[in-house]
Structure formats: structure tokens, C-alpha cells
Amino acid sequence: MTDIAPRLGTLGALTEEPAEAPADTTLAASLAQLRRRSKITVNERTLLTAGSILLPLGALVVLLGWYGAAHTTRVFEQIPYLVSGGIFGLVLVGMGVVCYFAYWLHSQMSVLRDVRDSLQRLEDRFEAPAAALTAPPAG
Hints:
Layout: E1 4-8, E2 14-18, H1 23-34, H2 44-70, H3 75-134
Antiparallel strand pairs: 1-2
Helix pairs in contact: 2-3
């Protein structure tokens, strides 16, 4: 609901016009809309699924483009097959390869994090007795 503030009209009569909202309120409402997270999260499974769909789909599109262009001898009839089948298929294959590569990088990073955590636990385990040995006796 908006606040209505009485104001003087053009002929001196009182008119009711909506009062302007404070700038802080409109800014807070705009920022609240920006904070919403999207429903799609990219994780290992998403990358693997996208790569496993895009790569064979791109290969299939390339093969269909080749099949269409192979059945005609006129160059002007082969160009649409080259564009729609060849180039679009290669783009799909490239996107699939990028998704597979991102999946591989993500899995390698998780393995490296596990190794780092286990090394940190070992270091903490070996530092505790060493610190007790080097500490001066209390007394």
C-alpha cells in the first residue's frame, strides 16, 4: 500500500497524490531480487550429464550433415548441410568436450582436497608430540 499525502493542486485545491517511496526501500527491494539463487547448480553430475549428451549429439549432427551433403553433387545444395550439420555439430562436440574436461578437473580437485586434508591431519598429529617435547618444563 502506498502512503497518500495531501498536496495543493493547480488551483489551490487539496489533491491526494501518492507519496514517493524512500530511496532505501526501493533499493532494498531491488537488491533482494538480485540475491535469489538460480535453480540450476553446476556440479560433477551436471557436467558429466551435459558432456555425455552433447558429445554424441554433435557427432550425430555431423554424420547427418555429411549424409545430406553426400547425396547431391551441386555445391550450393551442399552448403546448408555444411553449415547446419558440420559447423553446428562441431560446436556441440566442442561443448561436450569442454563439459567432460570440466568434470575431469572437478574430480581431480576433489581428490587433491582429500589428499591435502589427510596430509594436514598427519601434520597436526606429528606436531602435537613435537611441541610437547620442545616446550620448557613448567615449574
